[in-house]
Amino acid sequence: MSSLEIVKQPTCEKVDVLFFQPVRKEGAWLFSNALLQLASFLHQHGFKTKVVHLGLNRNYKKTIRETLFKYDPKYVCIGLRWFPNLYAALQAIRIVKSINKKIVTIIGGHTASFFDREIMEANPFLDFVIKGDAELPILNILQGGEPINCSYRDREKIVRKPIKYTQTKTELDGLHLVDLKEIVDNIYGINLMQLDRLREPLLPRAYVWCGKGCNYNCIYCGARRDSQKKLFNRESAIFRSVKDVLIDIEEYSKVGFSTLDFDFDPFIKDKSFYLRLFDRIEKNRFNCVFNCWTLPPENLLASLHDCFKETIVVLSPETFDDSIKAYYSEKDLGKPYQSNEQLKETIELLKDYENLYLELYLLEGMPLQNKNSLKTGLEFTNFIVNKYPTIYKRLPDMLDVDTKSLLVYRPIYVYPLQIDPSTFMDKKSNQLAKKSGMTICRKTFDDYYTYSKKDFYNQPRNIFGFNPSFNRKIKNNVNLYYDLLDRLFGNNITYQKTISYN
Ligand code: B12
Ligand code: SF4
User: 335 CB less than 6 Å from ligand 2?
Assistant: First the structure.
């Protein structure tokens, strides 16, 4: 279809900027909260914006064609936070330009920031990659100013500007969601997306953005302090203001969300943030999912108990091998050291609150994990489930009926390490990986592009991104945990049989 074929109909609801959330495969994929925030920001600056999820019709090409026709935008912005979206995101740009080459195409997010040059080179249809924080850079493009934080084309040449704009706490003030019914093309569809993908209690969940960055430097994480420096030029974590977060919560509430999901917890920075926030939320109005990056202090548990109807407290010790946790912490490759004993103390506190439930996240494939880590891990898992059955047994009742029948939820989750573009970037991490028998097989833009394309078409692919023997080890270990969990939970809880990765 050429640009001429876009016939302007009187029914066309013209917008300035259209945001697309790309898919991983046709259909379900969560919505990035960054798109909602950016669309809200531009809306506050007088631009008409719409956010569209390309998974809604299970045919992303059709959705692109239909929404371009419906909204006739001047700019199309595509979110590329998550690397599994790479293939579909770049395809989307191609399709947009093939329909109307006058539309200015912009891409941004973690993965786009990491591969800005390669993405520009591989995609002649793309006009701008915005690196790092995007509010001011995107506004500048729309207002015709000098591009900042951008890679773009000047005739045939690719110009790569450094990341000069990194939001400070003060610059976050005043950023909040506006009128979701107005800026999101199909709110109902977005809620469905979650139900389609996840098999968990308390769905759909509104993800509440509370801050940026991280103070920790976990070796296996693409959002570690060192990666934040490269991707965002950000030195340490910052919280938003309680006032703006409360506005977001109201916006989510207006469109029907009743569960709030928090996943930002660099406690070292501000221990009082959540206490102040929860103090201002009406009691028993919402449910909550609270992801703790470190162990929560007692007053935070008490505050969750007081504020919400039901709360799932998610703890991510990653491993039950204390010696690995201690080593990572000492070498600045992990979170502050917190032992299994301290974890037990936290669970003891938690179990006394009748409306708090526990979910545990473990990670398999971390450097230095060995046979002993596996043995300790299985033993400690066994111990926790047997000692604290009540905090798990209450959870299935919170699953909705449809989800229950799918039998794929278990409250202890063993997550296989999956390499993402900004992990293992430095020499120290690479040496440690090598020492642990890991060879990282996914490094370049082409590696990620090929991976995400195969993923899209469901072809055989290297899911974790390591050498075959290490991949096998991860898979076997994860399945050993799931065998154990099957035995422990039996029929008392919805569960998933051993996972298979192809
Ligand atoms: C919260 C979070 C989640 C939430 C998402 C909630 C939501 N609805 O958005 C949950 C828990 C669901 C989640 C899931 C996943 N996540 Co996550 N997540 C994060 C986390 C902790 C914070 C992101 C955030 O909210 N930031 C706040 C927003 C406002 O800022 P921002 O995203 O940086 O956006 C700014 C810029 O990046 C840029 N920008 C962003 N998008 C766009 C788009 C355009 C067009 C433009 C111009 C600019 C732009 O401008 C924004 C405003 O300044 C980050 C780690 C981190 N500290 O960054 C990981 C992180 C982003 N997640 C990651 C991953 C891998 C995942 C999963 C794929 C994990 C998995 N295997 O399942 C899933 C994908 C889920 C899905 N889509 O189905 C990786 C991404 C690495 C990569 N390069 O791909 C990160 C970096 C963590 C890590 N372990 O490495 N995640
Ligand atoms: S605490 Fe560790 S795993 Fe969590 S975001 Fe920070 S660096 Fe990543």
Answer: yes
